[in-house]
Predict the 3D structure of the following.
Amino acid sequence: MFVERVTQQLRKPTASLLGWFVKKFLESNRILEATAVNVCDIQPDNVVLELGFGPGLGLQEAARRLTHPAGKLYGLDISEYMYNTASERLKAEIQAGKVTLFLGSVEHIPLGDSTLDRVYHCNCYYFWPDLRAGSREIHRVMKPGALMVTALHLEFLQKLLAAGLLKGTKWQPELYMEALSETGFIDVRMEEQKMNGKSFPAIFATATKT
Ligand SMILES: C[S@@+](CC[C@H](N)C(=O)[O-])C[C@H]1O[C@@H](n2cnc3c(N)ncnc32)[C@H](O)[C@@H]1O
């Protein structure tokens, strides 16, 4: 079925004709990615992670803000095609040691405990195999008091759902917010964010640790 193949490509784009179209479509998401980076309020010396970075537009936005030598950006994505695409796009920053990208899934983030000041992701959690395992692992790598932001294109998501795409995914924001609250995050809330005349909901969560 065509809709299932498109859903599969949104979940994990591959180097194929359909994967190429999905990549082109994702390259129109710069404002959403920029919104997530903007509301993260990234400081120049922060250590930051983007999950499910896709073609790497959000990585570019975040890397620009990390102007202090201590500032460092990590990215993790499950798709080899997206890993290669973003590695090419961020070539200079990777060579400079400012950015490091990993190929892998959210339940196994290859970083130590309490490493990160900020984590953000867009259009991504719907595809995770287990929301609680994902949010538990994000919590592990975050410093106490660190901020996690998820920006959503809810209107577009509704259109995809109406077209029969994303079947079987846990797309409802409430499900992710519930998982966050159950795995060590506080102040979990969703707020509308405006940027360049567009408006997107964003989920905020703060990591607490004892
Ligand atoms: C719909 S795309 C969104 C890409 C980009 N964030 C955007 O909004 O344009 C979903 C991305 O999440 C990645 N992804 C899906 N499941 C993942 C997982 N379990 N762990 C890490 N990345 C994942 C996919 O490979 C893909 O790049």
